[in-house]
Design a protein that fits this description.
The protein contains nine helices and no strands. The chain has about 200 residues and is mainly α. The protein has two domains: about 55 residues, Arc Repressor Mutant, subunit A (Orthogonal Bundle), CATH 1.10.10; about 130 residues, Tetracycline Repressor, domain 2 (Orthogonal Bundle).
C-alpha cells in the first residue's frame, strides 16, 4: 500500500536540491515523477502533491533555488564597483566555474532543462526563455556602460557584442556537459574578451 505521509525527518531543502539536480541533469520532461519522488526520499504521490503541488510547481521552485545558489554569478554584470569589461570577465569566468563544477550536474539548468519541450510544457519553456532574456539584458547594460564610460567606441555594435557573449554563455553549457576541460573553456573566454579590446575607442 502506498504511503500517505512524508517520511520521518523529511528535509524539504534537501529534497528540493535533489529535484533540482535531477531537472538540471535530465531536463524538465526527462525527469519523471517517479524519479523525482525517489530522489526526494521515496516520498509517496500524496506527499509529493501535498508538499509541492505539481511537477511544474516543483520545477519553478527548484529553478528559483538554482538561481539563488548558482545564477548570481551573472549579477557581476551590474556591479558598478567594477569597470564594465571587468564585470563581463568576472561574470563569464564565474559562470564557467559553476558550469564545470563537480558538486552538481554540468552545464546550466536555465539553458539545458527546458530549451526543447512539447506543447504541454510551453509554460516551462517560456520560464527559462525569460531567464535567458534577462541575461541578455544584463549583458546589454554592461556593454552599454562600456560605451558610456568611453571604454568602447561610440560606434560599437552593442547588439553584436551581446550576441557574442550570450552565445558564449550558452555554448559553455554544452561544452561543460560534453566534458571540455575548465582550462580550455577559460582560454576560450580569453579569446572572446579580445573582441571587447578590438572595440575599444582608439
Amino acid at each position: 500500500m502506498a504511503r500517505s505521509g512524508r517520511p520521518r525527518g523529511f528535509d524539504r531543502s534537501a529534497a528540493l536540491d535533489s529535484a533540482m539536480h535531477l531537472f538540471w541533469e535530465h531536463g524538465y520532461e526527462g525527469a519523471s515523477l517517479a524519479e523525482l519522488r525517489h530522489a526526494m526520499g521515496d516520498i509517496s504521490s500524496a506527499s509529493f502533491y501535498a508538499a509541492f503541488g505539481s511537477k511544474e510547481a516543483l520545477f519553478r521552485e527548484t529553478l528559483t533555488r538554482y538561481l539563488g545558489l548558482h545564477g548570481g554569478v551573472i549579477s557581476a554584470l551590474d556591479d558598478e564597483r567594477l569597470p564594465p569589461r571587468a564585470r563581463l570577465e568576472q561574470a563569464l569566468l564565474a559562470s564557467a566555474t559553476v558550469q564545470t563544477g563537480e558538486a552538481h550536474p554540468k552545464g546550466c539548468m536555465v539553458t539545458l532543462s527546458a530549451t526543447i519541450c512539447s506543447d504541454a510544457s510551453a509554460s516551462i519553456k517560456a520560464l527559462t526563455h525569460s531567464e535567458r532574456c534577462a541575461t541578455r539584458q544584463a549583458l546589454h547594460r554592461c556593454i552599454t556602460a562600456g560605451v558610456q564610460s568611453g571604454d568602447l567606441d561610440p560606434a560599437t555594435d552593442v547588439a553584436g557584442l551581446v550576441a557574442l557573449y550570450d552565445g558564449l554563455l550558452l555554448g559553455i553549457a554544452i561544452q561543460a556537459r560534453d566534458g571540455l576541460a575548465p582550462s580550455t573553456i577559460r582560454s576560450g573566454i580569453g579569446f572572446a574578451l579580445a573582441a571587447w579590446s578590438g572595440s575599444v575607442k582608439p
